[in-house]
Structure formats: structure tokens, C-alpha cells
């Protein structure tokens, strides 16, 4: 039996990304929200969005997110 759609990891990631994007409108420099958008974009297979928000991260966070996204087959510059 398949799990309910509401518990799908992709659906959860999409909802988290949508909420983070909404919250970023009020706080565009919030590094935690930026990381969340990059991470969910990688999980969802959206390299363009991942790159867009990756560029806004601090150098340390860019390096960490580069490693994380590589696990999902998305290559990002380390810095």
C-alpha cells in the first residue's frame, strides 16, 4: 500500500519551499530560509532555482549546500 499523498517527501519539500519563498519576501536576507529554498530546489530537481538562491548565501553556506545538492545530482559552484 502506498503512503498518503500528504506524506510524500516531494510534496512536503514543495510546501516547505513555497512557505520559505513567501517568508523571504519579508526577510530577503534570512540565511536559514535561503538554505531551505536551495535544499528543497535540489530535492525537487530544480537546478535553476537552486543556483539563483545559492548565489545569495554566505560563502560557508554555499559550500555546505553545494555538497548537499550534489547528493541529488545538482552541481553548484562551491563559492
Write the layout of secondary structure elements.
Elements: H1 9-26, H2 31-43, H3 47-54, H4 59-70
Helix pairs in contact: 1-2, 2-3, 2-4
Gyration radius (Cα, Å) is: 13 Å
Runs with pLDDT <50, length 5+? Answer: none
> How many strands, what sense, and barrel or not for the largest sheet?
none
How many helices? The count is 4
Order of helices and strands: HHHH
What structural class do you assign from the helix and strand content? mainly alpha
CA-to-CA gap between the ends? 44 Å
Which descriptor suits the 3D outline?
A: flat
Q: How many strands?
A: 0
Instruction: Give the helix proportion (percent range).
Output: 55-70%
**Overall pLDDT confidence:** 90
- Proportion in β-strands: under 5%
Task: Note down, in words, how this protein is organized.
With 79 residues, the chain is mainly alpha-helical. It is flat.
Amino acid at each position: 500500500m502506498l503512503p498518503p499523498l500528504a506524506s510524500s517527501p516531494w510534496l512536503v519539500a514543495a510546501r516547505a519551499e513555497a512557505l520559505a519563498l513567501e517568508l523571504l519576501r519579508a526577510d530577503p536576507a534570512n540565511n536559514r530560509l535561503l538554505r531551505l529554498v536551495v535544499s528543497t530546489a535540489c530535492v525537487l530537481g530544480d537546478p535553476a532555482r537552486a543556483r539563483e538562491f545559492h548565489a545569495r548565501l554566505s560563502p560557508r553556506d554555499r559550500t555546505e549546500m553545494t555538497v548537499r545538492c550534489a547528493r541529488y545530482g545538482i552541481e553548484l559552484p562551491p563559492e
